[in-house]
Amino acid sequence: MNKAEEVERSIIKKFRKDIWIKFIAGIKDYELIKPNDNIAVCISGGKDSFLMAKCLQHLQKYSDFPFGLKFLVMDPGYNNENRNLIIENAKMLDIPIQIFEARIFNYVEKVDKSPCYLCARMRRGYLYKYARELSCNKIALGHHFDDVIETILMSMIYGAEIRTMMPKLHSTNYQGMELIRPLYMVKEASIIKWKNYNNLNFLRCACRFTENSIENEGTSKRKEMKELINKFRKINSNIDMNIFRSVENVNLNTIVGYHNEDYKYNFLDDYNK
Fold first, then answer.
1. What pLDDT band is residue 204 in, cutting at 50, 70 and 90?
2. Would you place residue 110 in the very low, low, confident or very high pLDDT band (cuts 50, 70, 90)?
3. Taking a C-beta distance cutoff of 8 angstroms, is the pair 76, 107 a contact?
4. What is this structure's pTM?
5. Which residue, among 146, 150, 143, has the nearest Cα to 46 in the 3D structure?
6. Residue 91 contacts residue 134 (beta carbons within 8 Å)
7. Pick from 43, 65, 174, 217: most CB atoms within 10 A?
8. Check: CATH 3.30.470.30 for 3-247?
9. Hey, where are the domains in the chain?
10. 3-state secondary structure the chain
11. Residue 189 phi/psi, 5° resolution?
């Protein structure tokens, strides 16, 4: 058994409960994959996207219906060491990646305000573009459970609104394209354990802001949320799941107001009816 087979086997054996079953639950509960989908699996070089790739590879082998996978790596301006690490990991894990270049770092490093936000939006646009050129109808990103609950808390605390990271989205700029998040139910702690168990070394963050030790406000806020959630988990191990489920159990009878695109509602609108 080679390294790629060992890593894939660990997902369905050693980490069956914490990774594989939750991966499958997310796929089924949110209907992320349908027959004859052609999915662009977007690999950034980190632990999350490589785990997602291996999970989707294994699912494709034993799925009840056919679907296609293309493994995309966008090089936004990595240095040679980071780019080579991605290539070496893909080869070791038997993932047939296709690399395309989009020199986003050259543009983003000149921006003073919210460079991480701009970089993420530009990355997504390029991924949609190249995925469509490969006849894909979906792109898959490696966001996990902790990303979701961090987004919920960050939106409440700093954005003064209730907003979540959706398990799938229709693209607003590329008609017929969707974004899916197959690791939606998988906790980051489980991914880290899987990485360490297999002695894998992935990119953490290869952007020039990290290389130059410049901490962006957006990343620092997310770090705050991560630390806050870890404190919550020490108080009650169910708190993270309660945060996750809260956006699925919204009681409109107890909400002061909400909005949906152009529609805005306040409880006073029909309070006396």
1. confident
2. low
3. no
4. 0.91
5. 143
6. no
7. 43
8. no
9. 3-247
10. CCHHHHHHHHHHCCCHHHHHHHHHHHHHHCCCCCCCCEEEEECCCCHHHHHHHHHHHHHHHHCCCCCEEEEEEEECCCCHHHHHHHHHHHHHCCCCEEEEECCHHHHHCCCCCCHHHHHHHHHHHHHHHHHHHCCCCEEECCCCHHHHHHHHHHHHHHHCCCCCCCCEEECCCCCCCEEECCCCCCCHHHHHHHHHHCCCCCCCCCCHHHHCCCCCHHHHHHHHHHHHHHHHHHHCCCHHHHHHHHCCCCCHHHCCEEEECCEEEEHHHHCCC
11. -60, -35
By the 10 Å C-beta count (0-12 exposed, 13-18 middle, 19+ buried), 213 is classed as exposed
Among positive and negative, which fits the CA dihedral 196, 52, 31, 252? positive
> Which tokens go with 77?
């301006």
